[in-house]
Fold these 3 entries.
Entry 1:
Amino acid sequence: MIEFSKEAKAKADQIIGRYPQGKQKSAMLPLLHLAQSEFDGWLSPEVMDYVASLMAVKPIEVYEVATFYSMFNTKPVGKCLLEVCQTSSCWLRGSNEIVDHIRRKLNIEVGETSADGMFTLKTVECLGSCGTAPMLQCGADFHENLTVEKVDALIDELKNKKERSSYLKSLVLNS
Ligand code: FES
């Protein structure tokens, strides 16, 4: 059976403790982010069942949330998850060309992972950075005003990345 590390379990208990008895389900989003960060960047059924057990809710309640939001991955992803915005502003400013460039460069389709396990390409809806379109998110970092040259430089930089991309550092887990 899977379990959080000691540190992550302490963080999970702290998050759950913010809510009154019977309202632990309110901790679901930060717990799923914590779990995704802890378990290789994705939420397997086993991980979702574990999160459900921590909140004392039915697994289906976790599955519903995890499959609704694009920031949660329900299948394995590469170390660097490239999430390219495809909504109006980004589309008008060439996000399709950015996606095509990444597809060709990494030899993958949208939703696939590169052969070396480093990169997964995903298209997502508006990430709230419309004024700096086109943009993509990798973990907690936004990369904006993209050009193919900037994408090439970013991928080269990410190739040496030691840590898996994660949203965790942008979350307020300590409040
Ligand atoms: S349209 Fe791309 S960030 Fe809003």
Entry 2:
Amino acid sequence: MNAPLKQHLIDPEICIRCYTCEEACPIDAITHNEDNVVVDAAKCDFCMACISPCPTGSIDAWRVVMQPYSLEEQMSWMELPEQEEIAKPDGTGPAEGGDVEALEDSVERLLAEAHAGAGGKARAPATASKPSINLYNLKKPAVGIVQGNYRLTSESADSDVRHIIIDLGNQHFPVLEGQSVGIQPPGTDASGNAYLPRLYSISSPRDGERPNTNNISLTVKREEQGVCSNYVCDLQKGDEVRLTGPFGATFLMPNDPQAQIVMICTGTGSAPFRAFTMRRQRLTADGGERMRLFFGARTSDALPYFGPLKKVPDTILEKHLVFSRAEAVEKEYVQDRMLKQRADLAGLLSAPHTHIYVCGLKAMEHGVEAAFEQIAKDIGTDWVSLRDQMRESGRYHVETY
Ligand SMILES: Cc1cc2nc3c(=O)[nH]c(=O)nc-3n(C[C@H](O)[C@H](O)[C@H](O)COP(=O)(O)OP(=O)(O)OC[C@H]3O[C@@H](n4cnc5c(N)ncnc54)[C@H](O)[C@@H]3O)c2cc1C
Ligand code: SF4
Ligand code: SF4
């Protein structure tokens, strides 16, 4: 049996037949008839040169297939076919389908690992905006200019977490809250090979640090001996940085101000939640339903965005900032606070519009799962089946690393 293939397609319902992509393709993989513009699966090498010039985004369509759609089939389409459920080549279950997260194998592996804690295939919320992915790759990265690099943790804290703002100039780099970018550190590893890219969650909302600015921010923790985190944390204002992506098609926000959003994180896991909160604040005057944030750190000095978070009104964001090493306060982890809030969380687990997001270090998964197990018992249900059901409907998301 053949391996599944990601096929590059064009959405005929949105395409305006301007043929810009056809001109941009360096290897003539794009052609058209009087009805449709189509991509030849036998030729396309995923160079992405056609993606950013397309004025409609219709060129950024993908399906995982066992047998590529032929040119004739594509030319006859009025709309794109649904993503089919396909079996893995070894017959062990469904292969990754509709929510393709990334085309680069190394990035896809990282994302699959990061989402593994959800217990199955990740799905986007039903109302999430459609993300763009893979617009820039290692062969053709976007080039950003560092606008600022600020330390978020106090000088006395033992962790150095930074807020880095990157200006994208006039490049087309559309992002959604919850997506990540790839950064390839310069230089080579011990065997002389270029380093593999690392992923960083975008911590700004889709319309930029301030509304209508074409920039993104990242929240990066310096790892002792870490190759990429030290490179990023040392970037200076005016430096160039090469970005790939954007990546991620499932860890996204529902486009529904009435959705109940529960966010659980430690450390740099707060990055996507800063973006979620800013998006909600900008979108709805009254913030829609109140979001809940459970955020753990050793001390308040080591908690990124501590000051700005305190200023977000409680009507928009209910904050549970917990510290495991603070002086004169009882030691507390996120799961401890979740259990203190069990009545509220039990109510949320029973509600059909609740979306749960867990982000941060892998080590946090176990405690969070155990807390949910207990809370689910309060409503007479089994956590694993409830979690699986929520995940299947795009309402339970884990991104841990
Ligand atoms: C989906 C996703 C989103 C992410 N988002 C973020 C984010 O928003 N912010 C963030 O900071 N990170 C994020 N990460 C993690 C990030 O991608 C990197 O893994 C992280 O920055 C470490 O990369 P590095 O190159 O600095 O470390 P690497 O060089 O890859 O090293 C990995 C680890 O090994 C240790 N190490 C390396 N060399 C040695 C040595 N010789 N001896 C002992 N130890 C050693 C390092 O200290 C480090 O902890 C994310 C990861 C994923 C998958
Ligand atoms: S990705 Fe590259 S090869 Fe494929 S259609 Fe676009 S421009 Fe052509
Ligand atoms: S550039 Fe985009 S809109 Fe224009 S023909 Fe190609 S796919 Fe269609």
Entry 3:
Amino acid sequence: MDLADLLEIAETQRTKQKPTRVHCCTSTGCRAARSLEVLHNLKSATEAAGLQDQVEVVGVGCSGFCGRGPLVEIDPKNVLYEEVKPEDAASIIDTLKGGTATATQGDLNHPFFSRQLKIVRQHSGKLDPESIEEYIAVGGYRSLYKALYEMSPAEVVEEITKSGLRGRGGGGYPTGLKWATVAKMPGDQKYVICNGDEGDPGAFMDRSVLESDPHLVLEGMAIAGYAVGANHGFIYVRAEYPLAIQRLQKAIQQAKKYGLLGSQIFDSHFDFKVDIRIGAGAFVCGEETALIQSIEGGRGNPRTRPPYPAQSGLWECPTLINNVESFANITAIIREGSEWYASIGTEKSKGTKIFALTGKIRNNGLIEVPMGITLREIVEEMGGGVPDGEVKAVQTGGPSGGCIPASLLDTPVDYDSLMAIGSMMGSGGMVVMDQTTNMVEVAQFYMEFCRGESCGKCIPCRAGTVQLYGMLTRLLKKQATQADLEKLKDLCYMVKETSLCGLGMSAPNPVLSTLRYFTEEYEALLQPPAYLNGKVTAGSVENSEL
Ligand SMILES: Cc1cc2nc3c(=O)[nH]c(=O)nc-3n(C[C@H](O)[C@H](O)[C@H](O)COP(=O)(O)O)c2cc1C
Ligand code: SF4
Ligand code: FES
């Protein structure tokens, strides 16, 4: 395969495409609402109407408006149908001959769509994720070619550094700096790992990228391999994501067949193969050192850092580990240049971020927005606000993040601003809560999650999360006093400061942020020291199982 071959595949695919494409989402969310039946009926209706020469019905990935799935979009008519039932399919095809559809038509001019800026998700919901030719037709694998033939590895690293891209897995570590560290490490054997574990409750961004545009991630990984000097990559995906795994497997096979993965890619001296590793669905396995142990076949327990994976990772070799969305940004940066990328977003948070907008909100789904957009713009304009009532809080960053009160909705969404108000960007879960939400219950929910997911290796997290959960439960049962509340805070700081890995270090965040912004809800639950008919004193409570 050389550039001429790639361009020929693109051209053949483009000429093969029919003037009208009917896109039906076949990603997990819409599948659960019978989109495969919709797809089947759309295809039969097209044949029955004799339109098969002009109309192509394509099963595509997720376009983002998952809360209203199954979605069907007609391209280039720019018409969207929501909550389509299998029995609506024939009428949708009928509209191509002037008929009327029985399905509800969506508004593509709504801010949910118009305020988005799609870089990573540019082709999600438009391409058949199981066709490498469709990916190549929209410019796929050109960035890999450009990197291999027009740039040195050091220039690729430099370009990623200048773009200002920061890791989308939660921590926001500068991607270029990480690549540069791995690139400079000595040794012939290095690895690239794509972290697709995605265990935060409410998050499904990475799954959607893998299901909708798997080649985008593979191409990003291959470019990374070239830049840092690695010839072997692993994608770690949790077993609960079977469709993502299946599409990745297919994509890897297709790329190998065309010589875009494997030996001598594009007839160059660069070899890069990718293997999939399936995780058993433990949140802690998303932590990089635990993930590495899991790939090595061990129990997914984190270990102390340093050494960082960049220095000594998989099988003690220098290892580059990045998130799915981080890799999915790479082809655009190489194609359009770092200056273009750095012009999007804020001073310290460049580019776009995908959020899973869920909870008490009218428009549920995935959005990709430029960094710096405010929470209010996301929640009220794009999300359409709370269906009944008002926003009370927005939880960002999942179990590691915090709850932001409605009074701070004008905060810009970027790594540093969210951190400054006691939350964090995290991987992109964004849960909207209304006035009926009990914030102490929210804190208890996240603590219950962390308690269950703690690997147990270090005591502050293993015992601390259990104790914190117990304290919150007793508070909610109205069995705690002011002294207990003080203990709750102290324990939060102790667990944060002494845990071994990020899970324990951030587990108290939802408690601390709700304590900070919703203190009155905690205080309303407090009891006077001698709360049980004067029989139990505050002292005895302090010494009890709390
Ligand atoms: C408990 C825990 C779970 C994590 N889960 C994920 C995850 O599912 N996906 C991810 O990319 N990063 C996750 N991370 C962060 C990774 O350890 C790592 O920082 C990240 O994959 C690096 O990629 P990035 O620089 O592209 O963000 C997790 C961290 C912790 C502490
Ligand atoms: S902080 Fe929690 S998850 Fe991390 S090593 Fe300690 S026990 Fe395990
Ligand atoms: S899963 Fe169908 S639009 Fe997201």
